[in-house]
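This section describes the prediction task in plain terms. A model, or a person checking by hand, is given the sequence of a single protein chain and must write out its three-dimensional structure as a string of tokens. No templates, partner chains or ligands are provided. The sample shown here is typical of the held-out split.
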Amino acid sequence: MRQLYIKQKVFSFNDKFTVKDQDEQDRFYVEGSFMRIPKTFSIMDTSREEVALITKKTLSFLPKFFVEVGGEEVLTIKKELSFFKDRYTIDAAGIEVQGNWWDMNFQVLKHGEVVGEVAKEWFSWGDSYRVNVLQDEMETVMIAIVIAIDCVKEDESSSNSSIDFN
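The expected answer:
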């Protein structure tokens, strides 16, 4: 099992941060597109090669995020039409997220087998997550899922906090 830690800097305008392992060594670099449409997050390995890409679909009635790992789309997160409470679904072939993913406390299963766990680290400055990867080949997918869900949450909170002056 490998433990990874994601800590995003509060008030970061350029959307850049690193994913570290339990020895505090850099494992991945994450860079968001600043002031670009469509909004993307690129996940790179230590040699700065892109290993995953998260893209927010533009010109869509409801928000939708696509997650690619190794050039293949592995999952989609989309907002469902509802009148009372916001609902999102995660569509992925063979991958399932169980638990409270809105609060960042969940397990990731592949074909029914737990391959990773995510927990929000409380009492920290900024958003910090601990990611337990139980299968090495799922490491990049796990990081991409956590960052994609965090993107969805950030998108939702920014749309809820916008004020219409008309």
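For orientation: The longest strand covers residues 72-80.
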